Amino acid sequence: MMSKEVFEKYESNVRSYCRKWPVVMKSAKGSYYTDVDGKKYIDFFDGAGALNYGHNPDFIKERILEYIESDGITHSLDMFADSKEKFISYFEENYLIPKGLEYKIMFTGPTGTNSVEAALKLARKVTGRSEVWAFMGAFHGMSLGALSLTTERYARGGAGVKLTDVTHIPTPDYIDGFDTIKYMRTILDDDHSGIEKPAAIIIETVQAEGGINVFSVDFLKELRKLCDDYDIILIVDDVQVGCSRTGTFFSFERAGIVPDMVCLSKSIGGYGLPFALTLVKEEYDKFGPGEHNGTFRGSQISIVAAKAGLELNKLEKVDEKVKEKEQIVKDYLEKEIKPLLDENETYRGIGLIWGICFKDGKLSRAVLDKCFEKGLIIELAGRGDSVLKILPSLLIENETLLKGLNIIKESIIEVKNQ
Ligand SMILES: Cc1ncc(COP(=O)(O)O)c(C=O)c1O
Questions:
Q1: What is the mean pLDDT of residues 389-394?
Q2: Are residues 171 and 98 both part of a single domain?
Q3: C-alpha 145 to ligand 1 mean position (Å)
Q4: What is the 103 CA–ligand 1 centroid distance (Å)?
Q5: pTM, to two decimals
Q6: Among the atoms of ligand 1, which is closest to the Cα of residue 114?
Q7: Residue 333, pLDDT score
Q8: What does the pLDDT average to over 351-371?
Q9: Please, which pLDDT band fits residue 3 given cuts at 50, 70 and 90?
Q10: pLDDT at residue 1 is higher than 70
Q11: By three-state DSSP, how is residue 225 classified?
Q12: 297 near 77, Cβ under 8 Å?
């Protein structure tokens, strides 16, 4: 049986990314995949944001191998463990405390959706309110609580039950001139709005799956103020755009705000290993022992990789690199891509997350297919999948970055000239 046929015959129909890139990958290093036939692909997908330091970075790999070689504990639930003590101390002393962030660290199940579920449950518990507000275009995960926040119709359709206790709020760009903050303040003040005061408002400072929608600094500041004024918990979901993706370790740093809870997963695992945290202000750290339990709340190998990832981030001065590469992408999009776009098409982004917004999903998909043919792995996002999403490793070499951007340019030219 051909290796691809194995997947078609035995793997569930739910498989998805392999349908866009139907090759069997064998190895990966830095910003390149290699398939079983030896063909190389530049990676502009980055494991959906789980590989901010690229594939198999040596610095992290060596620490994982050393740890395994020494028979370090692999699994111990949340017993005290040496590797975990080292991670917590390092994260607090080198990231949280210097940034003036006083958070308790909750180790949740290992995926982004687990981190979001923990934040939701906790916000509801401490406030005694069930309602949560999320923004239209949001993606927060696929388990039921997180899915109730996620807006995509197709994803919600898989729930099989009513997705309740969430109100979705239009974003500032939803309708021309819409004032989201005024709208929220109005419905909170209006005793006839029919909308309950929420326990929490959850936001991705840059909606990633939603099509690279960047919330402005002013908006984020005003949202923080609104949450303070009405005693609402502010949750920032930094699962995809945290870990330096936007040019600062936490995406909310650019707005100078401090959320009450922060969801982290994906690249906090350093090496693409499953790992998630929910950071919580001490006053909200109200779960009793074991009240939000789970078997895989931080496996030690992920924890070792996570600490090494944090060290590598500092060693490589990743935030500075992102700012430098952001300029490269921005200039390229302005000079080389914009002239190829129609009037109602555009590009947008921040740091190393950018979207080229096509007029429809047919066009974006044709560009994706062409990119793949030319050796570039790149994903779609947004309404109707109409946004081509540029999400490279934060350590991508500038030459490879430009090579990938050139593939996009050539692909757009070929597709538009067909
Ligand atoms: C912002 C955000 N939150 C949560 C999730 C869910 O993470 P996971 O797929 O690991 O459950 C994602 C996944 O893409 C995400 O982008």
A1: 98
A2: yes
A3: 13
A4: 21
A5: 0.98
A6: 11
A7: 98
A8: 98
A9: confident
A10: no
A11: helix
A12: yes
Tell me how crowded residue 71 is: count the other CB atoms within 10 A of its CB: 7
| Interval between CA 113 and ligand 1 midpoint (Å) | 6
Alpha-helix runs per DSSP H in 92-216? 112-127, 144-149, 153-157, 180-189
Check whether residue 111 and residue 225 sit in a common domain.
yes
* Residues 87 and 205 both lie in one domain: yes
Determine the residue of 140, 236, 246 to mutate for testing ligand 1's pocket, defined as the one with the most ligand atoms within 8 A of the Cβ atom: 140
Residue type, 216: S
Residue nearest to atom 2 of ligand 1 (CA): 140
Residue 93 DSSP class? I
Residue 199 gets which letter from DSSP? S
From residue 188, how far is each of 96, 172, 230 by CA, in Å? 32, 18, 8
DSSP string for residues in 57-88: -HHHHHHHHHHHHTT--S--TTS--HHHHHHH
232 and 200 Cβ atoms separated by less than 8 Å: yes
Q: Average pLDDT of 188-209?
A: 98
- Does ligand 1 come within 6 angstroms of the Cβ of 140? yes
Alpha carbon distance 368, 131 (integer Å): 39
Concatenate the DSSP letters of all residues of 162-194 into one string. Answer: ---SEEEE--TTSSTT--HHHHHHHHHH-TTS-
pLDDT band, very low/low/confident/very high, at 4 (cuts 50, 70, 90): confident
What CATH number is associated with residue 344?
3.90.1150.10
Q: Is the pLDDT of residue 2 over 80?
A: no
User: Domain total for the chain?
Assistant: 2
d(CA 42, CA 54): 11
Which residue puts its alpha carbon closest to atom 13 of ligand 1? 141
Please state the rounded mean pLDDT for residues 166-175. 97
List Cβ neighbours of 221 (8 Å cut-off, separation of 6 or more).
255, 256, 257
Determine whether the shortest distance from the Cβ of 139 to ligand 1 is under 6 A.
Answer: yes
Last residue of a domain, one of 283, 315, 347: 315
What average pLDDT does range 40-61 have in this prediction?
98
pLDDT at 46 over 70: yes
Last residue in a domain, options 299, 315, 331: 315
Predicted pLDDT at 14 = 96
Instruction: Return the number of other C-beta atoms located less than 10 Å from residue 297's C-beta.
Output: 19
Residue 32's CB is within 10 A of a number of other CB atoms, namely 18
Task: Give CA–CA dist 142/114, Å, rounded.
Answer: 10
CA of 111 to the centre of ligand 1 (A): 7
Please check whether residue 121 is in contact with residue 145, taking contact to mean a CB–CB distance below 8 angstroms. Answer: yes
